[in-house]
Each structure stands twice: as C-alpha cells, then as structure tokens.
C-alpha cells in the first residue's frame, strides 16, 4: 500500500517574492524517508478562498497533508480559521496552548500581547502540538481522506515539531512503504547522451525509478526505489546502481545524496589533509559553502576573498610585478594566490580562483567567463584556465565553484 | 478586472529533495510586476497522472499559467506529452525547433543525439518559443480558461524565455491590473506587538493590503496595492506607508524591497566608503552576500575567513598574546581582527565577527550563541558582544550576519 502525501505552504510572502519556500523540500525529504510518497507541493497566498481550495484539494487527494505557515498572532495568519471552516465548526480556545505561549514570551522577558491569544485557538477536534522553540502551537486533525498536520512557517520551529509529532505518526501508519535513494553524479556527457546510454532504465513505472537531473554543469542519476522494508528498498536501488556503473565508466565521478561541499570535507578528512582557499571571482562562495558543512572546522583552515589587487598583495603576498606583468586574471596570479593562502593559513592544500564573472571587465584575449584556477600542495602548484560561456555573472560564478569542487574531489587539471 | 495567474513546477528532483524550486518565486515576482495576481504555486512530480491533474486544475482556475520543467530530451521529461493529452491531440514535430536544437548543440561542437528530437515535439496548436541559451524550446497554448506557457526548468533559460515571450504577452492582456509594493523593515518589537500597533491596516480585502513577515530576526511590513495604472498603485502604497511610518517610530530601520546586503552596498557607495570583513563564526557569509550584489566591487575590498587561530595571527595580525589572554571569542580579538582587516585591505571600514555557533565549543562563561563583533574605522574601533539564543548553528550564524547588516546600516553599538 502507498501512503500519498502532499505539502502545503501558506503565506503571501512566499508568493510575492519576499521569501523562498524551503520548508516543503525539507518536509518532502523527511516524509519520503519515513515511507510516504510525495506527489505535490502547493504554495498558496493568504487569501481565505485560495487557502480553502488548496487545503480541501490536498485533503481529498492525499493520506497525509503537512501544511506550514499562517499560525502567527496577526490578522493575516488565517490557517486556523480556514481549517475550522473546512471542518464546519468554530475555533476552540485551548488553555494549555495559551499557557505555553505566555510561558515562552514571559521567560524571555517579552510582553504578552492579548493578540497572541489567537495562537491558542484550535479547529474542532484538533490535537495541539507544543512548540518548544517559539510561540505558535501546531495541531493535527482529520480532514476528509487526510491526516492533516499544521506547523508554523519558521523553519526551525517547523522542523522540531515535524520530528516530534508528524514523522513518528507517519512511520507508524499501517502499510507505509519504505523508500531508498542512490544518486550517481556524472560529469562529461550531455543530458541527452546520458539519457540514451541509460534509456532502458528510464521507463515509466520502473521500481526503482531512474531519472536524470541537470544542475550547475553536473548531471545526477537518481535511483529511487520502494520495497516492504527499508533494507529491501536500499538493496533494490543498489542493484540498479550496480547495473548502471559499468555503463557510465569515467563519466561517474561521485556517489551519494550529499552535496558536493560535504563530499569535499569528507574526502579531506579521510586523507587527513587541511584546506584553505583564496577567492577572487567566486567571492567567498567556496569558503561559505564549506563552512556550512558540519564538522568543516576539522579540515578547513580559512579563506581570503581578495577582490582588490592590493588585497592580493597585502594578504596573500602576490608580488605586484606578477599582477602587472600578467594581469590579475592569469594563471601566474592564481598560482601565487594559492601559494600565499597555503602559507598564510598553514594548510596542506590551497585552491585559488581569479576570473572575470562579468558583466564588465572582459577583453578580446580574456573575455567574460575566463577563470584561472590554481591548486598548491606539498608536491607543488598547478594552474589552469577555463573559458566558461558568458551566460551571466551568476552562471560564471556557479560554474567556477563547481570546477573547484571537481578539482578538490578528482585532483588537479582541467576537466 | 483581475488577471489570475498560477505557476507550476515539474520534476521529481524538486519533490525528492535534489533541487529547490526557485523558478516559481522569480516568476511570481515578474508576473505581479506585470500586473497579474498570483495565488498559487504547485510543484508536481514527473508522474503523468499527478502532472495531468496539476495542469488541468491550474488551467481551470487561472487566466495565465506558467509551467517550468519537463522539457528535456529524456524519457522522464513528460510535460509535452501531458499537455498534448490534455488537449486531446497527438504531438506534432516542429521542424524549426529541431533546426534550432541542432544548431545550439552543433555550434558548441557537441554531438546531436537523435533523442533530442523529442524536444521539437509540440502539443497541437502550440506556438514554439526559441531558446537562445539552451536546447529546450518552450511553447504557449490555450488550455481551458488559461493561456498556458511552458518553459524549461533551467533558471537562466526560463528567465530569458519568460522575458522574451511570457511577460510581454501578460502586460498586453486587456484589463491587466498594475501592482506596486512598499516594504518597511522593522527591528525591535515582537510580531504580535507590531501587529497590534498596525492592526487597523491589516483587515482582509484592504487595498493596498498590509501584511507582516518575520525572517531572520527582522520583521517586514509589506504594503501591496493594485490600481488602474502603475503610478496610481505606487502612490496608493506610498500613501499607506505615510500613515504607517509615524506609528513605527524608531522601530523602522530601512525601506525598500531590496535585500539588506544591497542596502549596505548602496549606503557605502553613497558615503564614498570602502568595506572589508574578517569573519570567524559567520564563515564568509557576509562577504559572499555582499559580493552577490551587482556593483559591490566599488565598495567591497575583500574579506578573510579566519577559522583557525593561526589564520587570525598570520593574515590579520592578531597578536597571539591577545588570543591567549582573552580567548578567540572575545571583544579584544574581534577588535584586533577588524583593525587587521582594515589595514590589510586598506579599507575605510572593517567589520569582524568571532563567536561560538555550536553545537560544540560553549563554556559556562561563553555559551553557544556568544558572538563578539567589532567595527574599525577612521574614528577608532568599537567592539561588543551579543548573546544569541542557541537555536542551532544556522540560527546563530544567520542572526550574527543580520546584526552585521544592522550595524553597517545603523552604525556601531549593540541593537
């Protein structure tokens, strides 16, 4: 049996460009790991009619619906009202939830406005969920076909409450189907060429399903399987991966559902090496994404964002003559930056980037998209140049960051 | 008259946690600026039945539907088939689109697999849109109530084609209603306290509508108005803002729909000052977000991510004795880091952060969440300490980054 899940996100701010909905993606990953099959996210404005239609539709189609947002204390927070309306009953004041809201605010020395009382109103029959990290209580209630869970929109509050209340309930549903994933990361072929190579695996209805995703110059083959047990699902995915690997050959350059910076940190940890970076055109993006990896401090010594030439000289010891002779975007300067970072941060390996991300700064010899890289380690320094298509500043930067992950994982040299 | 719009995003990779849907937010902002009212996004898996239901629902409810994704060359790219199925007719091979796909691949020296022919198949009656930056052609076609536009999922391809084909068509629709926004950024009160203060403005159905969004410690009052002309919509929003400002007083600390790093760059540009940063616990996030701002190079000299104590010494000239006497997380070290960055980068203003983001590293005197800041400028150096609630590593970092924007905009001192 399949437990179908849908995810709703409520809020004008998600529609009108103020915030990106990151909750739904997180929830989908957790719900699928728990064994549900997620087929749809819906993001709806605060408009009561639009909300009502979105909630009613999801609760008619799915077994589990998780909604986030619209539980705040102000008048534009309408999720409670819409759910009560769907259930055809009035909101009920929950004394325990109100005590908790007051306790949360009071223990932080904040005033307790009367308008926060709205947060303790519950639709008829709803089971309140305590919020250990904020004021908004959540709740669970049966609506039509679905078990509906309503959580706050603030990500950290939503995540704690999903782990406490939603995921355990989903995992214990009768007939839940465990799901597993294996990802193969591919570099080299076009999406179409890869699709032809693995076409027999991509038929609709196959279990495990095999799909291709293109992102930032990298292709990912996603193998997603379901089975009666988590172990059987994992084994089915691995069996498909065993068939695919020989077809991929040298195209296959990494495996796993983790992000590339996590793979880099894991690889350096495994080799007992430390890393430093000197970034010009990538502007700190490499350092920032490495630091986001839990445990990065064991391998990452630090980084310099050296936009100005003076910064390349003063902080990385790049000789002014080198910049004047070859230009700031040159393999020579990239090499000097990498060596300066390796020395300054006392790291085993240092990577440097210097390039022209655009829109300005291009010349006939060095057009926008020209990026020089260097890696310095105990064996010496190697520098190389990439010509990235000028498809916008963000594209050039992303592609340069990706090349950095590639070289840190695969070794030096141009890909 | 109101033109209702909905946005669809297609792809298993969006549901199963591989990619975050950023297209819908971008499209919503552009469609609303063009005068449409967006009430819903839907993200659907590649499952043909789920896709069909999502497309049929959106095209029954809205006047304009923009869908992204599922136009690639592989068998799991099914948007063309689903739309043809909805229209009850077979796919039609479009010779001009095929010529374009071949030209795009050929001019880049790539092979042209036969499977790319799938991308030249069009639903009956569809008008093909050329893709100037990739292989996947898009199309426009009438489905039920809606004018349906289908674009590739790759953001840069989608954006170019939306600007070329979708937005001009929407702007010329009869009865289109221009929309304007004014955002007031607020720091200080709780969301409930702010809601009480401006409650009379938050009634449903008001035009301009007034709403509150909480994000990263900052509250944003969003004023969104529609009117027969863009100028009248802007004036209506500004009239509401004029009424709100006196109610906010010192809580109001910035205005505008731009992000805080953009406000920082604009403020430094206006004052003719340059900026450098030295980051420990914020890990390059401040530098990275500043560099993302177009034109940042005019004010931003660079940054150092100094995780290790040796890096603080070698690159920023923080005396070892200072670290030993006060600890790496101390106002003294923050001050020395800021002064070192100001000197090294030859910047007018330098900001430094050093703190304990967790989960490890806390002590009774300096618990997780303790962050020291310093700003060095021509008038001297000032350092201060914040105790950020320990709600997770990401929260502490985000809150520290936000404090940095605040101090760079409002001046030194604790908030």
Element layout with pairings:
The structure is a homodimer of 415-residue chains.
Chain A: E1 4-10, H1 12-15, H2 23-33, E2 37-44, H3 48-61, E3 64-68, H4 79-87, E4 92-93, H5 95-107, E5 121-122, E6 127-129, E7 138-143, E8 146-151, H6 155-171, E9 179-186, H7 191-197, E10 209-215, E11 218-226, H8 230-248, E12 252-255, H9 260-271, E13 275-279, H10 285-291, E14 300-306, H11 309-316, H12 320-326, H13 331-344, E15 349-355, E16 370-377, E17 380-387, H14 393-410
Parallel strand pairs in A: 1-2, 1-3, 3-8, 13-14, 13-15
Antiparallel strand pairs in A: 4-5, 6-7, 7-8, 9-11, 9-12, 10-11, 15-16, 16-17
Describe the fold and architecture:
Two copies of one chain form a homodimer. The first copy, chain A, has 415 residues and is an alpha/beta fold. Chain A has three domains: 4-171, MoaB/Mog-like domain (Molybdenum Cofactor Biosythetic Enzyme, Chain A); 179-255, Alpha-Beta Plaits (2-Layer Sandwich), CATH 3.30.70.2860; 260-410, Alpha-Beta Complex (Maf protein). Helices cover 39% and strands 25% of the residues of chain A. Chain A has 14 helices and 17 strands. Chain A has helices spanning 12-15, 23-33, 48-61, 79-87, 95-107, 155-171, 191-197, 230-248, 260-271, 285-291, 309-316, 320-326, 331-344, 393-410, and strands spanning 4-10, 37-44, 64-68, 92-93, 121-122, 127-129, 138-143, 146-151, 179-186, 209-215, 218-226, 252-255, 275-279, 300-306, 349-355, 370-377, 380-387. In chain A, strands 2-1-3-8-7-6 form a six-stranded mixed beta sheet, sandwiched between helices. A five-stranded mixed beta sheet of chain A has the order 14-13-15-16-17, with helices on both faces. A four-stranded antiparallel beta sheet of chain A has the order 10-11-9-12, sandwiched between helices. Chain A is globular and about 80 Å long. The two termini of chain A are 46 Å apart. The model of chain A has no long low-confidence stretch (mean pLDDT 90). At the A-B interface, helix 1, helix 2, strand 2, helix 3 and helix 7 of A face helix 1, helix 2, strand 2, helix 3 and helix 7 of B. Strand 2 (37-44) of chain A pairs antiparallel with strand 2 of chain B, so a sheet runs across the interface.
